[in-house]
């Protein structure tokens, strides 16, 4: 029987480089012969994901509690699939996960314990890699500002919320470094839960 695949969550504020690093990590793990899949949250292709996408593009107004529940429901839609993959020995790299759900909702003033409750029962990440880039750094990167939450004031609150959520188990990396440097640090961190040949 295959040994259980790891669950690695890559977290951070907007434009901190999560999608860049998640894709690089998946490639490096696959190149090393580790069966790996990438999961991006929100997944905008599902029924719920499509509503989230409309909301983020300013085309569907939703109150803060409702959008929190939809982000969480979007993750629940992948629970059974993630567990099957892990049981089959596939490592999953998650581009955002439950801590994004908490940080963005905290930044909008929701109660953290209420927010946490909606994700209870989802698979726990074996490792959280946090890409630390202050909003002023991220705001200078391309694509910033196109969606609803992408303004420096909200991002500062998200940044503060992530700081509050961090615990000693997180690997916090300087994401203002060039992408190739960050990628090296990400690969070292991943080896806490994945063995490479
Ligand atoms: N959200 C939420 O509220 N609740 C939830 O539960 C979840 C999400 C899961 C959409 O997420 C929104 O949903 C997001 C949080 C909220 N709102 N905000 N704000 P998303 O993940 O779909 O967001 P996105 O549009 O993909 O942006 P992003 O993920 O924040 O960007 P990124 O993945 O961190 O960055 P990137 O795409 O890798 O890089 C951005 C640019 O910077 C690109 O041009 C890169 O080439 C460049 N880049 C990357 N790394 C570097 C370095 N190291 N140096 C210089 N330039 C770099
Ligand atoms: Mg991204």
Can you put this structure into words, describing what you see?
The structure is a single chain. With 197 residues, the chain is an alpha/beta fold. The chain has one domain: Rossmann fold (3-Layer(aba) Sandwich), CATH 3.40.50.300. It is built from nine helices and five strands, in the order βαβαααβααβααβα. Strands 2-3-1-4-5 form a five-stranded parallel sheet, sandwiched between helices. The radius of gyration is 16 Å and the shape is globular. The model has no long low-confidence stretch (mean pLDDT 96). The structure holds ligand Z5A and magnesium ion. Residues 12, 14-20, 41-42, 56, 71, 96, 100-101, 104, 141-143, 147, 149-150, 175, 178-179, 182 line the site of ligand Z5A.
Strand order of the largest sheet: 2-3-1-4-5
CATH uppermost class: Alpha Beta
Bound molecules: ligand Z5A, magnesium ion
User: What amount of the residues lies in strands?
Assistant: 5-15%
Largest sheet: number of strands, sense, barrel closure: 5 strands, parallel
CA-based gyration radius: 16 Å
Q: What is the percent of helical residues? A: 40-55%
Overall pLDDT confidence: 96
Query: Which parts are unreliable, with pLDDT below 50 for 5 consecutive residues or more?
Result: none
What is the CATH homologous superfamily assignment?
Answer: P-loop containing nucleotide triphosphate hydrolases
Q: Give the termini distance in whole angstroms.
A: 19 Å
Structural class call reads alpha/beta
Order of helices and strands: EHEHHHEHHEHHEH
Can you name the CATH architecture? 3-Layer(aba) Sandwich
Q: Specify the overall morphology.
A: globular
The fold-level CATH name is Rossmann fold
Total number of strands: 5
Count of domain modules: 1
Q: Helical region count?
A: 9
């Amino acid at each position: 029987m295959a040994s259980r695949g790891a669950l690695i969550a890559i977290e951070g504020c907007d434009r901190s480089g999560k999608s860049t690093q998640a894709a690089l990590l998946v490639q490096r793990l696959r190149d090393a012969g580790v069966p790996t899949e990438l999961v991006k949250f929100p997944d905008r292709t599902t029924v719920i994901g499509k509503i989230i996408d409309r909301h983020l593009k300013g085309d569907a107004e939703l109150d803060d509690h409702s959008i929190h529940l939809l982000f969480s429901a979007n993750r629940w839609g992948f629970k059974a699939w993630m567990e099957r993959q892990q049981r089959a020995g596939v490592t999953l790299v998650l581009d955002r996960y439950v801590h994004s759900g908490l940080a963005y909702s905290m930044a909008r003033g929701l109660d953290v314990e209420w927010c946490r409750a909606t994700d209870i029962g989802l698979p726990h990440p074996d490792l959280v890699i946090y890409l630390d880039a202050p909003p002023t750094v991220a705001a200078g990167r391309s694509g910033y500002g196109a969606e609803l939450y992408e303004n420096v004031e909200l991002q500062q609150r998200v940044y503060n919320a992530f700081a509050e959520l961090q615990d000693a188990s997180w690997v916090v990396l300087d994401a203002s470094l060039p992408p190739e440097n960050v990628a090296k640090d990400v690969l070292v961190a991943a080896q806490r839960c994945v063995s490479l040949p």
